[in-house]
Amino acid sequence: MTDSVSRPVLHDPEVLHQRNPVDGAPVDTGDGAVIEVRNPATGLLRELSEAGVSADASPRRRSEYSYDASNYRVEPLAVAFPRTVDDVVAAVMACRASGTAVIARGGGTSMAGNAIGPGLVLDFSRHMDRVLALDEEAGTVDVEPGVVLAALSREVERATGGRCTFAPDPSSKNRATVGGAIGNDACGNHSVRYGRTSDHVAEIDLVTSDGARLTATETGLRATDPADSFSITRAETLSASLARLAQENLSTFRLELGRIPRQVSGYHLQNLLPERKFNIARAVVGSEGTWAIVVGARMKLVPKPATALLVCLGYHDVVDAARDIPAILEFSPAAVEGTDEAIVATMRHRRGPDSVLGLPEGRAWLFVDLDGDDTEAVRAQADRLLARLAENGRLVHGRAAADPAERASLWRVREDGAGLSSRLASGGESWPGWEDSAVAPDELADYLADLRELLAEHELTGVMYGHFGAGCMHIRITYDLRSEEGREVFRTFTRQAAELVVRHGGSLSGEHGDGRARSEFLPLMYSPEMMAAFSECRRLWDPVGILNPGSMTEPDPMDAHLALAGVPQREWRTSFDLHPAHAGTDPWVHAAQGCIGVGRCRADSGGVMCPSYRATRDEKDSTRGRARVLQDMVRGARTVEEGWRSEEVREALDLCLSCKACSTDCPAGVDMATYKSEFFDHYYRGRVRPLAHFSLGWLPRWLKLTGRLSVVVNAVLATPLGKVAAASGGLTTKRALPRFAGAREWRREIADAGAHAAGETDSTDSVVLFVDTFTRGFRPEVAGAATRVLADAGHVVECSPDACCGLTWISTGQLGTAKKLLSKAAKVLDDGTDRPIVVVEPSCAAALRKDLPELVHTEQAKRVAARVRSFAAHVAERVSAGWEPSPASPPPEQAVLQTHCHEYSVFGAAAQRTVLEAAGVRNVVDANGCCGVAGNFGFEANHYDVSMQVAENALAPALRATDESAAVLTDGFSCARQVDQLDPSRPGLHLAQILDPGTTTSPTPTTTTARHTKETEELP
């Protein structure tokens, strides 16, 4: 038994340089002593700088790269972002000279710990991410290692007119990279048809630990540059040594390797055999960065099927589902994936009942993808499959999901499995470690039955999903990795599970690799002769042993460097109720540890998360990067007070737009907007806040004053003094300030529309209209339109009492004031009824629905929050109940839909589209993403450029792709401001204005001066 690595003592120089990386700087050890710290990264950084390679050894950066998607934490010395192969060679040679480890990293989504290590991390995803050339005739595409798999597939399909694609499609395909897929031998959902990454490599360009540049091919090894004499010699010597190794181990390689489709554990040395034609390219795949560093590759293309149909099958449990796999495989499916009820329940709990569409009855499900050239033939094949499975007697219910929305919904359940299963609807947690075992498909049912018995023996629960058709299971297990006793169970169970899978003729890993999680147990699967061959092969490639140490041969213990071990148990008092699901864990610590590293926040498409990362492409600006810095804060701060003062966390949170998208899009449910608000509330206590926290954070107070002086204020802001006023408040002068409405305008609007005052009606059909601060102060005409629409929908409209949701104080981390305002709002809105409270501004609706009960811990707050609806969500409910909108103005033929991020995250994304289509808008163009203003963010001087770059993710392209006749729907005031900035000729409209049964949709002018039209320069 090897003890988990405990938290180092404060006197440890390694810990001290984490807090202050300046070489030779004096550091207080915490007990009165002061020592001089020598930073081991200093010399390496100097050598890298002299070689023209920039690297970052800041504490914040090292925190971001101390984790991947595994259970482990290993802090690197520094992180570099190579731009060229020459950069990689220079970095490797500098590390070789100092004996520093080198860890190649792509998307950082490894669940086995293969993307972290103690030396220099090379992140290829930021710059070396290009598709260089595509040869459809040859069926290959030349890529750099950092290109994302989904982006590669899209580019191949675009370039070939949809005739070809790149096949490997793991669930992390929209952030995992080609280099990472080569490192692990990743497979994916359609591996039944297309196999593993090793089936799709033609050539791989490599840099070895001695700086040689080699190309591994399907028949050998050569120097990448024919004029490079050193690399020529190295290729010849290494080729001869590898051929000798294969010749000396012919029977061992033939008997022990390549026995089942998903035998990924260990090195793939069977590809060195004569009958495999000395295919070194395939042998390199799955070596997990321990042989050489991948710097380029020629990957193979496959034809793309003309049509596909998803068949969803429901079973009583996963064992029954697994027993039908042999029969299903007879129908030549492209994919056979599975999941259990825990993941489905969590998806519905977190994202609503409509997040999973078309699922048949059952408690475990298989998703079978059938494809072909003829739609009718594929449909007939699906019918035959369903009939055959019905005869088998295990199928509960099955159906073909022909609807594209259903198909996308079902695949989303499977693809988000890892994150969804980490924090379950039941309140439990699950972790990787034994999440990648594989057996032959016809052995799967018996293996799962035995594995369930082993889990029960250790009082563990396994959340099961994975590639059933290939016999590979991704099982996340409810280990307690926070306690010594729980870690002992973790070690004991993992060893016994390894022994079990070997008895079933299987592999410890089926696509994630062995890494830190399973390498220790490779001797259970392989003979001493094979293990010796693995070690010898690695030594041939990397004689100095600097490439990704701790994995494969001479591994670290599987329970060393666990991220949850050694975290101090302390109380971090918070204003937000963070609902800890794990007994004995502080709520703030539990929230910070919610990120498990799957990296969906790094995806370049789908959903809204994470707008800042999509703008900067910097890990620092991803939800994951921020979460990792928070995790190191609760781990490494000497006191709670020091933690709340962390400059690293403040820097990591700086570009968080508080859009709340991660609370919905993140499979693990990370809510960075809440964490930012909580942290800033503590960080700025006793400190001078940014001016914008007063000018924008206190906006509702200022609007009471401007409402009385609106004519004067608007006149002044239309002069050069407007920019002076903006600058003095910490605001950008590049964005015009909006027109301020008079204090009585909104009251006149709703009165003219027939709204009743608070308490004037007791009609059972009444709703309470909450006219928020933004609508009152800037868009009073929307209040009138909303009143008329609600009346047209059959409601008696009552205006709510005067109240504020506290949003601006929440977003700037001024929670004391926010709680007071929310408490007052709860008191005045709790009228003893269950009438819907319809809020005009979606961000204010979200604050009342979500933040109110989390900040005000009373039953009254919960009652009020449960009644809150956004305007769009409520009107969509009326449409579903049969109401048909009757706008006075003809609906536009086309509309650009910019859903407010808070609407998206709290109420869902479908409401506005549903209502627009009911109103007769035929063509709705979704601008799927954050607009970039996000409340105060885009008005702040230091965030303006990023806000405009965020707009380029979705909104700006959508505006450019449509003409001026298309309406632009912006229920959020901040979204309307961004549209006005991008194209002043196309003012953003609220849904109420488009639906208004009693007026036109021409909005009141919303700005005081002309817009800046010069495009923002792209961020570096």
Description:
With 1020 residues, the protein is of the alpha/beta class. Helix content is 40%, strand content 12%. The chain contains 46 helices and 27 strands.
Topology at a glance:
Layout: H1 13-19, E1 26-28, E2 34-36, H2 41-50, E3 55-56, H3 59-64, E4 78-80, H4 85-98, E5 102-105, E6 120-123, E7 131-135, E8 140-143, H5 149-159, E9 164-165, H6 178-184, H7 191-194, E10 201-207, E11 213-216, E12 221-223, H8 229-248, H9 250-256, H10 280-284, E13 293-300, E14 302-303, E15 307-315, H11 318-323, H12 325-329, E16 335-340, H13 341-351, E17 364-372, H14 375-392, E18 397-401, H15 404-415, H16 417-420, H17 444-457, E19 462-467, E20 472-477, H18 484-503, H19 515-518, H20 522-525, H21 528-541, H22 587-592, H23 611-616, H24 623-636, H25 640-644, H26 647-653, H27 662-665, H28 672-683, H29 692-695, H30 699-708, H31 710-717, H32 721-728, H33 745-752, E21 766-770, H34 773-778, H35 780-792, E22 796-799, H36 807-811, H37 815-829, E23 837-839, H38 842-855, H39 859-867, E24 868-870, H40 871-880, E25 894-897, H41 901-907, H42 911-918, E26 923-926, H43 944-951, H44 955-960, E27 967-969, H45 973-982, H46 991-995
Parallel strand pairs: 4-6, 5-6, 21-22, 21-23, 23-24, 25-26, 25-27
Antiparallel strand pairs: 1-2, 3-4, 7-8, 8-13, 9-14, 10-11, 10-13, 11-12, 15-17, 15-18, 16-17, 16-19, 19-20
